[in-house]
Design a protein that fits this description.
The complex is a heterodimer of chains A (about 325) and B (about 210).
Chain A lengths: L1 E6 L4 E8 L3 E9 L1 H5 L6 H23 L6 E9 L3 H18 L3 E5 H13 L7 E6 L4 E8 L2 E7 L5 H11 L6 H8 L24 H14 L5 H27 L3 E5 L6 H13 L3 E3 L3 H4 L3 H11 L25
Chain B lengths: L2 E5 L4 E7 L4 E7 L4 H16 L8 E5 L5 H18 L3 E4 L1 H11 L4 E8 L4 E10 L2 E4 L3 E4 L8 E4 L7 E3 L3 H9 L9 H5 L10 H9 L1
Parallel strand pairs in B: 1-4, 4-5, 6-10, 10-11
Antiparallel strand pairs in B: 1-2, 2-3, 6-7, 7-8, 7-9
The chains are: A alpha/beta (about 325), B alpha/beta (about 210).
Chain lengths: ~325, ~210
Amino acid sequence: MITLGIESSCDDTSIALVENGTRVISSLVSSQIEIHRRFGGVVPEVASRKHLETVLPLLRDCLDSSGIQLEEIGQIAVTSGPGLLGPLLVGLSTAKALAWYTGKPLIPVNHIEAHLTASFLTAGREPEYPFLGLIVSGGHANLVFVEGPRQYNCLGRTLDDAPGELFDKVARHLQLGYPGGPVIQKTGENGDQKRYTLPRPMSGKGYIFSFSGLKTAVMRVVAHEGDNLSLPDLCASLQLAVSDIFVEKVGLALKETKARRLILAGGVAANTVLRNSMLKLAKKHHAELLLPTLHLCTDNAAMIAAHGFFTAHLAPANSLAVNAVANWEMGGPYHF
Amino acid sequence: MRYLFLDASENTTFSQFGDGNRFFGHSFDTDRNLGARISEICDKMLAEAGCTFADLDLLAVCTGPGSLTGLRVAAGFFRTLAFISDKPLIGLDIFGWSLRTLHLQGINGEIKLVLPTLIDKAFVVSALADGDDLKYEPAQLCNRDEVSGTNAFSIKCDMPGLRRLEPTQQALHDFLLSKQTQGTKKFDDILGVLPMYVIQSQAERKFEEKK
């Protein structure tokens, strides 16, 4: 069965076609990064406007380039939350028109849940349970034990900033550009990871994350070092600190849950330092690590389509009445 | 000729169906919930009309001014429908609808239309209505108290010194059925059916000020 996926939860408009939840037929993403760069972050009103302008041309291009006819599509999966409400509603109204007109099922998809499915999609496999999932992005740092489709046991989450948010704020402070994650990784490529001593907040305190203190510590280093500051060393030290935090918490979770499969997901999963740390950690715990391709780390509709395919049986019968929800919890009920 | 029109510019969503013999319209209390109810509204309208989507000849959607979220949901839904169903789509703004209402009431000549916004300002349109020929300039954002005069109208609200105007279902019906009204099936024109009179966000205003 072919699932059409639509994603518009933040600043990427995306349309994809995925067969049986495991094979990407077509996946198109239109990024708004250049538009939001001048504001130093995503402006919801501007994002909504751009999504509306972009979603239809992207849909047409996706159908045209794949050669798939609308009649061949079995169902429509759409991000219904969490995310920015205005942007979410643009994708949802587009998906509803498609479902209403064609009579195909509409599958509301939780965006964060779908990030976990992206790693299985990368491997061309169906999700296998249970597994441990770490979702790290601009809005999330969630460590979850996944027992089945839409069955999440949240072990821990951030008390304040998410790691992507931390990278954005530090990059803005250092005037490195936007988005922060890629520029910090590039700047720190040849830096000395141990040059600056940065804290590992919430170390030894179970599964709770906190990143705002790390941001403050970076700013203190910047102020203290003045002209002697080495940006490559600072960026390398920051990435190591972030990676160490996750290594400790995920290591603890692997030990306690005895999970034999680990999934890294979300935009920050594209970070090479974090990916390498997780590879070592998984090896140490004899766990399989599934990583999404870089293309599937960031927001995309392919993961929405794939997750929609594997959760279609849980979607409400009256899904055309589902609404967008800015703060939809993983595994939470569908909202009307 | 059968049409379905949707206006989501306010908290209450208005929809109207019409054909050569009749028209009817309903308001739906969709405050912050149009995203959930839009297909249900279309279902109800078509059921009352005794027809299906396939029977429609024209899709029409209000392009504002008004609630940007509501307008986007309606435009997103109707644009997609037009694209996949190959049915013509037309966007109608509230000023055009209001002028046609005045025209039906026999009010012609130089007209000013005022529609308040949430930011203590108002959209003001200067129009020249001469028989069937209705011309109007793009709306300007002005202070609310800047407009007065005998042929100045406030749309859907009371404002000091202005006559209140409610755009009518009859005017909408006449416009959508008139021979001059043609929706578009061309993809690029469908893309042009967007909420009008977008007010800059705070971030954009700050950015402009900095520049």
